[in-house]
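re: the backbone from monday

yeah here it is again, tokenized this time
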């Protein structure tokens, strides 16, 4: 958590002025019991009404000035806490964007959402309360104790014993609560994960009539969170009653000793009232401090989770080499890939070369490593062995931004963002004109989609929910083509297209004037049989590389896939 405080540098002034004005307010508050004692001993005891009125006006003045100080302190504290959290949120979001697929897989979507929202809000509240109360409450407690000694040293010793006992209770509860609050936030990750899965997969859940099972799963995760919150809540709840018991016992001893001292003429009645008021101030401030510590405990736990995410180093770093002039668009030199914490390689000894302008088909069974292979080209993952080259340079030696600017990727899941079709297309090239967009849309066989939706200004809902699966796929292909990439990767991105549209798409890709190297990952042999080169994968191994005719003759895996589909297509 303390490493996050570097982002408070821009708010040093507010971080000083906020507590300062709170201390000024507290200082005025410490004078109130003395004014009340003077009213009792000099005004009421002597029947001096003018003095009473004058002292009451002093109390009113102290109240208004204290209120002004309090509002000013709140302003600076709020400005610092909100600004700090905003900066931290930007830094965390930017850091998440820099992480590779490996780190994103390790963190998980639900925990990242929780850290960006719930954890951030808790840290903001903690910083706000810290700036306002962390110095004020101890200042009032020790200030009241010192003021009590100026009235009567013997009676003031009760304050010392009470304060020590209270500090022991407060810090004991805090030390127990910190690790427990961290576990609560982890349980919240689980609830967030289940909620997210249900919201994104609601159609699948209803299609399989799994509402009851998913409800039970949510209830189970929520019950775990509730139990954790209740357990740590019971510990934290001890703070107030224990504090009240200790303070009230202290007040009883104080009044008893004060009464004896008054009867003996040692101190005045006003002095006893002042001591009582100081004890009450200590009670109020320690309750505030107790609640503050609970909030700080939560904030520290949440801040540590945010810090852990920020300390996760990206496994992919920028290189410094520029692309060279090479006839090869991409090369795989004895490439291996093993995912983090995996027991075995997902790809083994992959070795092939793709010339510029060539079309490469990649086919294989489910889990054979097709997507893993093409994900190595834009460095979504790094090869654990061997080399992947683009334009004759190892991708690890190139700046990531330069590498990915050469590549257009259409992932398996067609993802569109809320906004107009034009805004989505500009993701491929923010400087593209409408003519460039329409050229890409036409090549992607999505012109009928644009016309049906009323043009490029048609609003797309989040995730493209107002489009069919085929429409989404064609628009995501168009978005990649707007970039006019040197390498185009279609990762099973035409699975929702009919055979005629798929064939027209492949024909238009071959006719592109900038002649990109095209990688087509597909389950259909019909989609890749006209490719210049076909790579057949089986359990992470390249069991065949060649043309359609060569593989039918020499590769049993490809022949089995083709024969199983050819019969279906023939029918």
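seq for it, each position gets an aa:
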């Amino acid at each position: 958590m303390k490493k996050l405080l570097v982002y408070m540098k821009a708010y040093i002034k507010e971080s000083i002025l906020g507590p300062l004005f709170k201390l000024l307010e507290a200082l005025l508050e410490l004078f109130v019991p003395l004014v009340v004692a003077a009213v009792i001993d000099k005004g009421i005891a002597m029947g001096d009404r003018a003095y009473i009125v004058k002292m009451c006006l002093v109390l009113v003045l102290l109240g208004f000035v204290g209120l002004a100080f309090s509002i000013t302190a709140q302003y600076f504290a709020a400005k610092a806490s909100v600004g700090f959290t905003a900066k931290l949120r930007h830094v965390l979001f930017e850091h998440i964007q820099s992480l590779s697929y490996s780190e994103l897989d390790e963190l998980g979507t639900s925990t990242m959402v929780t850290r960006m929202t719930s954890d951030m809000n808790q840290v903001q509240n903690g910083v706000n309360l810290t700036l306002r109360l962390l110095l004020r409450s101890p200042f009032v407690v020790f200030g009241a104790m010192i003021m009590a000694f100026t009235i009567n040293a013997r009676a003031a010793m009760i304050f010392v014993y009470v304060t020590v006992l209270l500090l022991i209770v407060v810090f004991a509860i805090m030390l127990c609560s910190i690790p427990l609050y961290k576990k609560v936030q982890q349980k919240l990750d689980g609830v967030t994960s289940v909620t997210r899965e249900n919201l994104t997969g609601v159609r699948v859940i209803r299609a399989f009539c799994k509402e009851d099972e998913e409800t039970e799963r949510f209830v189970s995760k929520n019950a775990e969170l509730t139990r954790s919150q209740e357990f740590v809540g019971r510990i934290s709840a001890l703070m107030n009653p224990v504090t009240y018991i200790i303070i009230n016992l202290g007040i009883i001893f104080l009044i008893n000793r004060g009464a004896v001292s008054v009867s003996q003429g040692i101190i005045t009645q006003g002095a006893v009232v002042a001591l009582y008021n100081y004890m009450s101030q200590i009670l109020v401030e320690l309750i505030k401090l107790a609640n503050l510590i609970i909030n700080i405990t939560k904030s520290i736990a949440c801040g540590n989770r945010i810090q852990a995410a920020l300390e996760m180093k990206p496994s992919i770093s920028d290189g410094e080499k520029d692309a060279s002039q090479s006839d090869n668009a991409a090369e795989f030199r004895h490439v291996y890939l093993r995912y983090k914490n995996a027991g075995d390689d997902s790809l083994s000894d992959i070795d092939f070369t793709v010339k510029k302008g060539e079309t490469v088909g990649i086919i294989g069974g489910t889990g054979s490593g097709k997507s893993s292979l093409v994900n190595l080209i834009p460095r979504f993952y790094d090869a654990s062995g061997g080399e992947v080259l683009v334009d004759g340079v190892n991708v690890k030696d190139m700046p990531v931004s330069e590498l990915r600017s050469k590549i257009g990727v259409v992932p398996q899941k067609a993802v569109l963002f809320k906004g107009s079709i034009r805004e989505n297309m500009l993701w491929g090239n923010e400087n593209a004109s409408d003519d460039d967009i329409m050229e890409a849309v036409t090549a992607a066989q999505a012109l009928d989609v644009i016309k049906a939706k009323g043009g490029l200004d048609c609003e797309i809902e989040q995730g493209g929910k107002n489009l069919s699966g085929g429409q989404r796929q064609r628009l995501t292909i168009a978005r990649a083509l707007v970039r006019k990439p040197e390498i185009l990767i279609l990762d099973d991105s035409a699975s929702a297209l009919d055979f005629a549209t798929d064939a027209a798409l492949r024909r238009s890709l071959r006719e592109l004037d900038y002649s990109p190297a095209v990688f087509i990952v597909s389950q259909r042999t019909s989609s890749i049989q006209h490719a210049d080169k076909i790579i057949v994968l089986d359990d992470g191994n390249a069991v065949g590389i060649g043309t359609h005719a060569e593989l039918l003759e020499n590769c049993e895996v490809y022949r089995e896939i083709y024969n199983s589909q050819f019969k279906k297509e023939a029918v």
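Residues 329 and 391 are 5 Å apart (CA to CA). The first strand starts at residue 328 and ends at 337.
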